[in-house]
Amino acid sequence: MIFILNMDERLKEAARCGNIDSLYELVQENPSLLDHIDEKPFSTTPLHVAAFAGQTQFAKEIMRLKPSFAKKLNVDGFSPMHLALQNGQTELVLQFLQVDNDLVCVKGREGMTPLHCAAKAGKIDLLVSFLNACPKSIEDVTIRNETTLHVALNSGMFQAFEVLVRCLKQRCRMEDHYRERKVLNWKDEEGNTVLHIAASKNKPEALKTLLDCRVDVKLKNQQGLTALDLINGQAQSGNAEIIDMIGRSEALTASLFPAVDCFGYYVRQDQWLRSAAQNGDVDALYAIIQEDPYILDHIDQVPFDDTPLHVAASAGHTQFALEIMGLKPSFARKLNREGSSPMYLALQNDELSTMRRLLDVDENLVRVKGRKGLTPLHYAAEKGKLEQLVELLMACPRSIEDLTVHKESALHIAAKNDQREALVLLVNWLELVDQNKVLDWPDDEGNTVLHIASQRNQIQVSACSFWFLL
Fold first, then answer.
1. For 65-119, how does the pLDDT look when each residue is reduced to its tens digit (9 = 90+)?
2. What is the per-residue burial (b if ≥16 Cβ within 10 Å, else e) of 352-379?
3. What are phi and psi of 461, to 5 degrees?
4. Gene3D superfamilies of this UniProt entry (predicted)?
5. For the segment 213-246, what is each residue's pLDDT rounded down to a tens digit?
6. Which of 44, 346, 347, 359 can bridge 313 by disulfide, Cβ–Cβ 3.0-4.6 Å?
7. How many folded domains does the chain comprise?
């Protein structure tokens, strides 16, 4: 027990300092360490500690090892994203979004999601980022049945309120106005809509914003009062104009807007579909889809998994890969639990024909970052795959600018792995596309590629130039 307690403190210290090496040393000592932490229903995980401290790289690494930590609440009722948000760690909050946009919907203390917290604090930029990443999050309610709109108005964050309304209107398609109206007409535990709150707080701007939308002015709260009743009970200048606007508003009745429960779920990939992908059987793929038309959508909801595209790319089944990519393009950018994209796996398994066809469909797949921020270009540089380096660079020239979580370019990777020919090729490419600035970029230890190459006796330095020794 004392050993476990000591290890727990060492793990927390590693998380506070962002020491990934210490993390793996502890995992080597006790491979079940993270599982033991995960068994507790409420716990301050290493991800909570790293999130609070703003240790982005450590947080991303621990999320790969134990994705469930991202949705776990600590004893105070907060998820890692809640803590990062509270402590002003904006960069890390946005990194969480990139890993799993559903983290915006994780309910913490009093049912508050990160979106509610951002609205309460008036963090406009984060509100927009959250809603862009996860539009459905605007439907989440607190234990008081408050939407994000309620929270913003009750907190006096009128600008945040207006941004939320604007985002809501932009996100709701013409055939999906019911979603917009449902959120705008939602009642809290006292039966108040946001129109009631705007009226009770005498917020003319908010009232006008809402009346321009599809709100139901006839809805009553638990006291039997409409928003108009609340305004009539106040002696405020400007009320006459608002009363007139409400009187002229032709809102739809509440019976048109039944409550719809929001829910999310994760579905394991069907073994039949995996077998079809492993064998490249397109007919079997469509037979499965006929049985379950939503199977690909269900797979897409899992934040990290081996999709059929991952399986087909690894096995070199090009036609199956192209077929599945046509049906579900998002699979091409999804990472599996090892942090690899389909193109990365195709390259890793020397399925070069498949890699090239994926590249034909979307050249930007070269830039998809996997584990530790490694792209397919980084992998080709690490392994000295010269032909593939040329193909990837020709397809997507800007991929040379991509950096790992340690701020390493493909040149850093080549130099650190003693891939001299790859390094020469990359330097020549920079010269060709006039991107020599990349040579001056330092990694997170402050080393440029020139520093690394010099340390490894890969170059000779003169006053004006350097030559690579082949």
1. 999 999 999 989 999 999 999 999 999 999 999 899 999 999 999 999 999 999 9
2. eebbbbbbeebbebbbbbbbbbbbbbbb
3. -105, 130
4. Ankyrin repeat-containing domain (1.25.40.20)
5. 768 888 899 999 988 888 877 655 556 666 666 6
6. 346
7. 1
Helix axes 308-315, 271-279, angle to 10 degrees: 30
Distance CA 137, CA 116 (A): 9
Which residue type is seen at 287? A
CA dihedral 35, 38, 41, 42 (to 10 degrees): 130
**Residue 78 and residue 44 in contact, taking contact as beta carbons nearer than 8 Å:** no
Q: Among 352, 354, 351, which residue's Cα sits nearest to residue 332?
A: 354
SS3 percent helix, strand, coil of the chain, rounded to 5, is 65, 0, 35
The partner residues of 468 in beta bridges, in order of sequence, read 459
- Domain of 422 in residue numbering reads as 271-468
Strand, coil or helix: 26: helix
79, part of any domain: no
Give phi and psi for 460, each to the nearest 5.
Answer: -115, 130
Name the β-bridge partners of 459. Answer: 468
Contact 381, 416 (CB under 8 A): no
DSSP codes of every residue in 196-255:
HHHHHTT-HHHHHHHHTTT--TT---TTS--HHHHHHT---TTHHHHHHHHHH--PPPGG
C-beta of residue 80 within 8 angstroms of C-beta of residue 49:
no
Residue 381 lies in a domain: yes
Question: What sign has the CA pseudo-torsion 10, 15, 21, 24?
Answer: positive
Confidence at 259, pLDDT banded by 50, 70, 90:
very low
Two structure tokens written together for 37: 């932490």
β 459-461/466-468 pair status: antiparallel
SS3 467: strand
Cα 338 to Cα 260, 374, 402: the distances in Å are 36, 12, 20
Per-residue pLDDT, 261: 32
Residue with tokens 């709100």: 215
| Neighbouring C-beta atoms of residue 177, cutoff 10 Å | 14
Q: Does some domain include residue 403?
A: yes
